[in-house]
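Predict the holo structure. Ligand: C2G.
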Amino acid sequence: MGVSIIIPYHRGEHFLRDCLDSIVEARLEEYEVIIVRDVNRLNNVDEEKSILQLLEWYKTVLPIRDFTLLDKTGVAAARNLGLSKASKEYVYFMDSDDYLIYDGLSKMLQVASSSEVAVVYGTMCLTWFKRYTFLKTDKQEMYKDSKDVATDMVKRYDVSDVAEQLFREEVSVLNMLIKRSWLEESGLHFDEANEFYSDLSYVTGLLARSTSDDTWICSRSKTYAKRYHNDTIQYPSLSQVKANNRMEQFLDAYVASKGYIRASSEDLTDLLDEYCCRFLLQNYEKSYHGKNDPVLTETTFGAYSIALHDMNNRVFINFNKQQQQILMAIRNNKQEKAVKIANKMFMKRKKKGLFGNTIQRARALDKFIFRRLPIKRNWVMFESFGGKSYSDNCKYIYEYMLRNYGSEYRFIWVMRDHKIVIPGNPVIIKPNTYKYLYYLARSKFLVFNSRQPIWYNKRKESVFIETWHGTPLKKLVFDMEDVHSASLTHKEDFYKVSRKWDYLLSDNSFSTEVFEHAFLFDKEKIVEYGYPRNDLLYADNADEIAGFVKQKLGIPQGKKVILYAPTWRDDEYYSHGKYKFSLAIDIEQMKQRLGEEYVLLLRTHYFVVDQVDSLCGDGFVYNGSRYQDITELYLASDICITDYSSVFFDYANLKRPILFFTYDLEKYREELHGFYINMETEVPGPLLQTNEDLIQAIEHINDVEETYKERYNTFYNRFCGIDDGHAAERVVEKLIRG
Ligand code: C2G
């Protein structure tokens, strides 16, 4: 009793690795893995080389047979070729971006071996995450070693029950263990002309050919993880591909499916017809609204009309009144009427949005009023960390403009807190208000340091300067495999938002390179001028500023300052964008051993919402978290402790000692983010795991400096080489005045 696992592959090595790893660990006995590569869809030769290497490696642990689709393309052709090569008693289709859950498939095989079964089909689990993350979440524990085969698996179905279950969800051939001889007798093939919906006619064909002697068994526990893709830009799944021929393709699959069903099988006919109506309703409205959406041509509309004509009236009862009206209009070939009803439904929803939803209302206001007003050539709008502070690159670009061209411009600052004092008397507005929209629409120059709202519609005449907020250590956007903390559509959203940036500021050539792949950003638009926020670190009056900052924070001038500025942790949060803070430093110990000479200045990341006031006030710990600008805190400090924050790239400009408190390095690197540089060998200071290590390093800070001198210099030259105190000047003179 063996199984041929058939996997079509065209792109996405990281997906395939997960898929094959899951087979390695599935505890299968007799099996073969048939991989059919669709080489016509590869991006380049390197991709080809790399996948061949990968397969060579996996061949050492798996019985892989690989084949290539030469003159054909598409998942249907790949599956047909795979089927023709299969040699085991059962076949099982997988997609290369999915993976098996534990030993589910081997249990399905045990069930198959115990009786004469045509098909054993498992239950799917839909997930956004890679296998590692999926298996780590507690919830998945329940699938592990789940019950024994007898209680867990064996549920016999008659074919109409199976059909009902499949048509209620999605008709797919995935996760079905099918007897090969039975399949061959059926003479079915996947329709190679159908790019998106070849599963429909194939599965309907299987159902239609099943007799009451053919047993189907369903597994109740989940055996297969089907992945959604959060990178729809580089790796869209078949269902995420934007294509305008979907309506035709679905209709072809529907017609072919209908051809397989025997006249007597009314149940199956109804299920298929209802499935078709649902597809039509879901896609009909889109077909005349969006740019990349499916198109419904007149001919196809006519063909759908004929299809609906042949359906039994009882099918329509399952839809609501308005849906029925649309279906009837299509059935009667009345295109105008169908559009009118669909539009009415659309407007009803819009109207609800217009009066009940702030974003919809804002959009309408922007479109119909603000964007029709002329753009103001001398208005410059600044936003730092979503309006959370007066800080970062934006602050220094603003202050340079204020000093040199103050009278020529009108400045607008986005600030959540109106009480923060900003020099130069700019217009202060709150984010996401009508005023915000108004200034966004009318300002010629927009200077931001993080993302602007996704709904922002840039005007051609405006200039959007994205200054970003740090040299990247942690992997960003398209270089991250899974996105844990942001929205699941983070990659697509980021892509859309970043297409509106005219310039992206970079601090060094390393960042430029990273931005190119992490943001899929055009190098031509990246300006490598250094960071304006680091200008202050080269100021002539740096000592004076340091004294002033200490005074403002109440730190005795005679004390040295240890700045502790960690980053945020993706898995420690209250809700999206609201992160927790847990202090890993033993303050009492540190105070006892270092309190004579030092104070500790705590600075939490701007995502963190926990207040640290309760930890301060004993003359040793000071709160720097409400301080607007961290660059001023750098100046006031003598040593910086950080972890995976981009803080150290900037701090290194001062050439003062940096300690890395990396007590959760493995977790952070492996699970949460991944890094661009090697922390062990490239950062300009020691990686310390415990409180004792930290204290000892500070007690012997001169030795630490000596040990890391050479590495610090290399680091400085690589990352701080452009910063010279004139970055703001370069931005303003070249991008705003130039
Ligand atoms: N920051 C701060 N206080 C901290 C940590 C960070 O004020 N305790 C500021 C610093 O200016 C830092 C910036 O926020 O450079 C970005 O913080 P990171 O910790 O690097 O994290 P993140 O916001 O995820 O940005 O390319 C940079 C990445 O996008 C990282």
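The mean pLDDT is 91. Residues 469-470, 472, 474, 476, 565-567, 603-606, 630, 645-647 surround C2G (CB under 6 Å).
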